[in-house]
Structures
1.
Amino acid sequence: MEDLIPNRKIIHVDMDAFYASVEQLDNPLLRGKPIAVGGSENRGVVAAASYEARKFGVRSAISSIIAKKNCPDLIFVAPRFDRYKEISSQIQKIFYEYTDLVEPLSLDEAYLDVTINKKGNPSATLLAQEIRQRIFDTVGLTASAGISVNKFVAKIASDYNKPNGQKTVKPEEVILFLEQLAIRKFHGVGKVTTEKMYQLGIFTGLELKSKSLDFLEKHFGKSGSFYYNVVRGIHNGEVKSNRITKSVAAENTFDSNLSSEVFMIEKLDIIAATLEKRLKKHKVSGKTITLKIKYSDFTQQTRSKTMPYFVSDKALILEIVSELLYQERMKNSVRLLGIALSNLNTELKQFVVVQLKFDF
């Protein structure tokens, strides 16, 4: 087993209900109460929920109406991204006190490689405890952590003792840990894949491990080799301080649903302008333009076109997006529009998303 698992010490730090916790931190009247960040009682989608709200089934990405039905006492709070970024910056400074190998995944989570660290502490478990305490002392928020030999296992472990806890999976424990793990808890296995695995009789890591590489590739394509390896503790992805940009995107959710393509073009013009600014800022361009459409019934559709050359100009982006918009008739009124540019000409390593308006 030692030959299969790289001798690294990885910590995955995940803030506990970050957006909601920040709101409760700044407003004592919200502490101990079920709150939802984003949305409203009559419209929108929940972006984040406090642990008090999660007890009632309130979670991110569900309709605000459903959330309120599940939790009648739910309090909706408007998001404050500048504040979240401010606190996230403070937390990341703490990470860099321990190692330069920090890979942020979002404002509220990151991987740290502490195999060789600035504190000279050989115990990743003790370092994780210290980092979590430093975060609490500095910003007043709790964090959970997973510690193991690779990013995949550390990511899963960080969810085990939430909130305000941590779990270490030692090298000699990795295989048994993965064998006993429910397949739905495997990082990278979503709802659709989970259902497909259930149909194939795969409910745990052990059952996944029993399948051959040919079998998994036959049923899951390129992902088959990933599943084959990770359940055996093989995941050699390094913690990198910067992540490759795969897509630059901008989107807007509207107060009132749009039913006319004319109005949609007006909104797309604004979105394309914001996207152009972001592209220029990062000095990137791309070949594939994707139009994202979310309808009033919350169904979502994407339409894409790949150009033979790189583009970043607003006018050209809008021209292509307009073509995609009129490609087929709208299925319903539209609540959200977005434009993404991928297939980029860059080696920058940070996923960029511009959210023009968060109040769904």
Note: The longest strand covers residues 247-258.
2.
Amino acid sequence: MFYMPAFKLRMRTSAALLAGAAGVTALGAGLMPSTASAATQSPQAIAAQVVPANQLASFNQIISHESSWNVHATNPSSGAYGLGQALPGSKMASAGADWKTNPKTQIKWAYDYMNSRYGSPNAAWSFWQTHHWY
């Protein structure tokens, strides 16, 4: 019989569920055990813990297009900053004082922004597809 430690089984199961729910296998690539700290997790893995599975693919599309998942992404024209390209970037301070460097803070802010402005990441992605901004 094949034995797999429980945490590896959870990782594989979580990655498979994430890939299936999001339709994007790249999100599962950075998945870490649930005991890993935010500092060791990829932004995509953090997003998978914050954003509901049925909204994750849309959230991923927006963040991929806006910042390529670069926490320090800065738009040279507008000055928009971070994963969700907040303008000004200091808006993200509402989600935490560590907004400049912490992907979890930026993800929480972007998710809240998508919900408050559009109703959900899915609705924000629909808007983005038409306008190429959100």
Note: The radius of gyration is 15 Å.
3.
Amino acid sequence: MSPGPTRFTDREPPGPVTHHIPREPPVPRMLDVSDEVRAEIGDEEADRLLAGENAPGSYDCTSCRTPGDSEQERTSTVLFIGDETAVLAFAHSSCLPSQVVQVTEEQLRGAVKSISGDTVDLEPEKIVPEQAVLGITSGLVLIAGELHPALVVEPTAPIARPGTTGSGDDFLPLLIEQGFMPLTELTEVPPVLHGWSVLLAVGQLHAVLQPSTTGGQPVAWWQAHQPLQVTESWRAAANKHQQVLMFAAPVGSIGRQPREDLLRDAIDKAAANGKLVAVAMPLAGT
């Protein structure tokens, strides 16, 4: 499965909150980064992309939609910029040059695909709304004097109820229907949501599982493109409690937080504003 576009303004915070697995060692990419793209993303990020630290190997070309490999062929970086959000996509250099494309925020948010790996279409008039990406942040939260492992889920765009075409956000109502509990303050551990679980294997976060509608094996509600590394303290807390706390909030409620104390402040603020639901999920794996 090819990875989707790299996001610069939403989710995936650095530092102790969440960690991605680095390539060991990173493989340099055959990327074309134009001066205008470099000016927007900065020299540091551009150099990381070229070094292979923060760029996919395989991808789906944002122009012709066929697979590409930045380790084997020249690849263009194409930066889509809205009013508040930027999305970096990849294309065969033979299809598109590296460039910055200005689109409306609505077009850009609608163009962010689900984890199926689709990418953004270059031509703004062809950009159509699709399913939002679910951003996952890991961190430890202190409740009643004890640290608990937690995952915070925030989509990159409003979530519409399946089968509807409205512009409303039904993310929290849909989760409440699944058994998530609304929170106005975080003073105690939320109740366990049976049938759901967090899949942790070899110290890495793989997926959040939900019950199958057909009664078979659980299916992935969220699944990482590649397993996400968690800190030793987070893993130790998960093994101790044998469960993980899951918090969810609508787009824009939590935001990108570089430290766990700031993440906790954002969680508390979302709860106070009536924009937070939570459950405890049993730990699957080790």
Note: DSSP finds six helices and 15 strands in the chain.
